[in-house]
Amino acid sequence: MIIDINFIGLIIASIMASAVPLILASCGELITERSGVLNLGVEGMMIIGAISGFALMTVTGSLIIAVFGAMLAGVLISTIFAFLTQTLITNHVATGLALTIFGIGISAMIGKNFVGIPGKEFPVFFEGLKDTIPLLGPILFGHSIVFYFAFALPFVTSYFLKKTKIGLIVRAVGDSPESASNQGINVKLVRYACILYGGAMSGLAGAYLSMIYTPQWIENMTGGRGWIALALVVFSTWNPIKILIGAMIFGGLTIIQFHMQAIGVRIPVQFLTALPYIVTIIVLVVISRDSRKIRLSTPSSLGKSFHKDN
Amino acid sequence: MNTNLKISNVTKIYPGCIANDNVSLEFNSGKIYALLGENGAGKSTLVKILSGVIIPDEGKIYLNENNLKLNSPLDAKKNDIGMVFQHFNLFETLSVFENLIIDSDEQRESLREKIDTIMKKYNFSIDLDIPILNLSAGQKQKVEIIRCLIRNPKVLIMDEPTSVLTEQETSELFLSLKKFSEEGILIIYITHKLKEVMQLCDEVAVMRRGKLVSVSEIKNENIESLANKMVGQNLKTIKKKKAKTSSDQLIKITNLNFTSEDPFETNLMDINFSVNRGECLGIAGISGNGQSELFQVLSGEIISEKNSIEFNNNYIGDLSPQERREYLMAFSPEDRLEQAAIPQMKIFENVALNNFKSSNFFNNGLINENKIKEHSKKIISDFNVNTDNIELKSQFLSGGNLQKLIIGRELITSPDLLICFNPTWGLDVGAINYIHETLIKINEQNKSIILISTDTDELLKLSDKISVIHKGKLSKIMNAEEVTSEKLGILMGGAN
Q1: Interface mutation target, options B74, B102, B144, chain A, most CBs of A under 10 Å
Q2: HSE on the CB side for B15, CA within 13 Å?
Q3: Could you tell me if residue A248 is inside a domain?
């Protein structure tokens, strides 16, 4: 069997494409969690983003409105979460789970009218350059704007947290909301902003799925990616670069096990399907086991409600 | 320029309690003011109002004749009022520099220069690039002070600053405060420690139950007069009678080691000591030098080698706290609400918690509520817990009452050995007195105590023998009469 080097490039590109929604949702959730808020509603926000993007695209015909509309939908649904957990001081875990259930339900309801409608082609960049460089060509060129954005995001997020004042404030709020409040930082405002940002990124991740990755609407099409994104955040110990690594491993194994199933490798299908989950978690646990670093990067107030008393 | 700060008719009411009742006070720069009072007297509420954390129901604050609107901590900062809180307002996982830059508008480089200048001027030495959680309490406090100084404050408020400091650190702090005062910063010093007021301050305002009781100059006061004003009654001074030396050994620790997997815990190295019946062994040290690990090893929260702890001729190093209790050991941990009691549970439920086997609280797996309630009422009356409602959730008891309840719960089974860790931390004078009396009584009944404490005065008052723990190692064991607080301070700092 002759393997074309560009074929390997294409496989790597497809792995990267499958990692995009995980990276987007994880990096969004990472900012939310760094501010001390545990939002388990990622899956729900993603699927709302997916149906909103697809529906707006079909109705308005505009891809730009669709993409930004999906992000806005993510923001809106996360506003519910923010209002409940930050203003009404409800429990983060229960509220997040409710958000996911709500998101899956309402997306199925809206989506009924959109089943079976074909999607639109999403413009890609540098299509012509694909064949100019062997191997790297298909990896670097011919992708959508969301793809490039997703691969820049972990680095931007890392820079934001480490080097900018606002990033420092987000980390401070996640470390100790009481101290932050006593320092004159508006904890609720910061947490609201981080929750809404997480919502926008989940919405974008959903839109990527329904508009670019598999351009169509299928009920429950996020298929647990939101939960994987959540797990990536925790097992990466809140480190955006490790999220990138984790998402690539997960995406890679998902694609490879499909190919293995297709070739007919004699390993039980169930094991192959479970493989990406197991390996991703093992790898992330192994690369993140420095307990000192864990302590330093874990938001100490994660999941705890903060109520300012007067 | 002179600074004049005026508090005028400030009132703050919480449901069921008047925290500040029409308080008026005036301060002028150049002097150090003490705000003295027991826990719950309202001094913390008052300074939180000054620093914008709490908004008063009534009353006004004037700084140099300007009426200040303090609706948030930011307002206080903008008006040059700096505050160092009792519980540090630091971000443990961020670096020292990140903690300082977070509320500053300056550029990194110029802020670094400014911090370096401040540190040089006042002889502070702190590595700016390590996380806060690697600092000692004294260093953390310096970070807080630097944070205030960066803004060139007119007023600096210190809320119970010495509760976590050693003798040396305290005298260093006092030197700095005097220097600040000479430079024209108005210092307000909140405390319930009378000795410090006499040492440091020029004027003292005493608060009791939300009301201002007196304002006077230090030269007209002494420790007794202040104590009586603070408590509102005459306090008797307690003294321990010299215990008769017994040679009957109760507990012996041999070559005890503990290596933690958590890098932020302290390892215990080669601990050896013994305690005789009727004796109190005090263990001094700056917090974070292995005290909590030592307490956990002694109580059985951390299991060690079987032979390393010999109690009443039994080897018990590998037993759990519950099993150790059956050998008549009792424990009073440091954190009353986290380790000793469960805050959301009622008083009588908490009483039942340490008495699973030896009591008749449970019949065939069912709770015998009447028995427990009877027992709880006995503890409450025997140990002077100021409540008659045993259905009250423990979190609503004051620190002093909760500590009395915990000590009572431990002692009512008349154990041979009580191990306690900072039993009077954060309590007011009345409660401290009561706990101290109780501990002395235990010794008089020929029972023993291991007292791990960061309060040197307490140790000198109660112990027969004293050792100092530093970085997980114990110093040699000294007779209490031969020890002074200065000597302890030196050992606590790690010198020989």
Answers
A1: B102
A2: 2
A3: no
d(CA B159, CA B78) in angstroms, rounded, equals: 20
pLDDT in tens, A24-61: 999 999 999 999 999 999 999 999 999 999 999 999 99
pTM comes to: 0.76
pLDDT for A3: 66
Range of the domain at B62: 4-231
DSSP code of residue B346: B
Detail the DSSP E strand segments found in B37-88.
Answer: 58-63, 66-68, 81-84
Question: In what helix (H) or strand (E) does residue B276 lie, and over which residues does it extend?
Answer: strand B268-276
- For residue B284, the surrounding DSSP H or E stretch is strand B280-284
Please check whether residue B189 lies inside any domain of the structure: yes
Cβ atoms of residues B449 and B418 within 8 Å: yes
pLDDT tens digits for A98-129? 999 999 999 999 999 999 999 888 999 888 88
Say whether A295 and B53 touch across the interface (CB within 8 A). no
End-to-end CA distance of chain B: 47
| Claim to verify: residue B432 and residue B385 sit in the same structural domain | yes
Q: How many domains does chain A have?
A: 1
Q: What chain A residue is nearest to B55 in terms of C-alpha separation?
A: A310
Tokens representing residue A296 in the block = 């330093």
- The residues, ordered by sequence, that sit 6+ positions from B343 with a Cβ below 8 Å of its Cβ are B337, B393, B394, B395
Least trusted range by pLDDT, from A23-32, B9-18, B349-358: B349-358
A85 DSSP assignment = I
- ipTM, 2 dp: 0.84
Could you say which of A180, A292, A310 has the minimum Cβ distance to residue B55? Answer: A310
Q: Are B149 and B82 in contact (CB under 8 A)?
A: yes
Q: Residue B177 above 60 pLDDT?
A: yes
Domain span at A88: 5-220
